[in-house]
Amino acid sequence: MTSDVQQILIDDHSADGPAARDARALQRDQAAALRDDAAGDRNMRADLRDVAAARRDELADVFLATAYASEQLLGLYYTSRQAASAHRSRASADRRAEAEDRYAAARDRRDAAADRLESAGERREASLDPLTGAYTRAAGFRQLRHEVESARRAQQSLTLAFLDVDGLKAINDTHGHEAGDRALIHVVRALRTHLRPQDLVMRFGGDEFLCALTAMADAEITSRLADVSDSLTRGTEQISVTVGLAALGADETIDDLFRRADAAFYDTRKRR
After folding, report:
1. Are 147 and 212 in contact (CB under 8 A)?
2. Pairwise CA distance, residues 171 & 236, whole Å
3. Which of 7, 27, 41, 98 is 20 to 30 A from 261 in CA distance terms?
4. Bridge partners, residue 158, by sequence
5. Strand ranges inside 150-217, DSSP E
6. pLDDT tens track for 121-168
7. How confident is residue 19, by pLDDT bands cut at 50, 70 and 90?
8. Which residues contact residue 211 at a Cβ distance below 8 angstroms, ignoring those fewer than 6 apart?
9. In the predicted model, what is the mean pLDDT of the chain?
10. Which helix (H) or strand (E) segment is 196 a member of?
């Protein structure tokens, strides 16, 4: 599995999806943090200049105390210097208050970013099948709608693959449900390995899965699914799967597309 942020971006490929909005908000927070750091550096340099000015004043005091013979001139000088020092103190206090405001705003942004990450993680966790890590049926069909809309806007092809694990009931009856669970996990792992990271994988039912493959040529689809099947057959569990494919039609609904993929699956199973 990828990191949380990467997984969120993989799971929601729509440019206006919640994960994409969270990613853009994080980028804005990072830019604001950089601006805060630059402002802090400027304040630090201003404070250093104030310290240097105060030191110069102290040295001037020493010099003038010996150079001025007139107490009246010394009084005028001290009055002027105290006014300048008071002005610098007020400016320094204003800068500190401004810095505190920026730091408070930065803390608020960090808290908001953490909340968004937590919300995104909760949404992702709620959308995934706890056993296999594939999309749940409800969340998967929501994502499938996004995939279909995106493919139509970009005038790209979309193929729906209906995949069923052969003999899962027999595996459960013979070797126990833990063996059946392992078989389902192996199937999703093989799909994740041989399909692209952006390809939708959902658990439709107990032993049934749907995959949405966008902008992929028929030959590549066949090759990738063959690799999935070969890796499962050669594995220690020796799992086999049956696949039915249907390409999205111009005016076809998702229900129509699913029914054709389901029908193609049964045709493939009958020919075996």
Report:
1. yes
2. 13
3. 7
4. 214
5. 158-165, 200-203, 208-214
6. 444 556 899 999 999 999 999 999 999 999 999 999 999 999 999 999
7. low
8. 160, 161, 163, 191, 195, 199, 200, 201, 202
9. 81
10. none
Half-sphere exposure of 130 (CA within 13 A, CB side): 2
Q: What is the token pair recorded at 184? A: 């389902």
- Cα 237 to Cα 153: distance, rounded to the nearest angstrom: 42
62-74: b or e for each residue (b if 16 or more CB lie within 10 Å)? eeeeeeeeeeeee
Residue 232 is predicted with a pLDDT of 95
In this structure, are residues 263 and 176 in contact, taking their beta carbons and an 8 Å threshold? no
Tokens at residue 39, please? 């402002």
Closest among 7, 35, 5 to 106, alpha carbons compared: 35
Compute the distance between CA of residue 20 and CA of residue 85 in angstroms, rounded to an integer.
51
Measured CA distances, 219 to 254, 258, 267 (Å): 23, 21, 20
Contacts of 195 (CB under 8 A, 6+ apart): 201, 211, 213, 224, 228
Residue with the two structure tokens 């960090």: 110
Q: For residue 244, list its beta bridge partners.
A: 162
Give the HSE-up count for residue 136: Cα atoms under 13 Å, Cβ half-sphere. Answer: 10
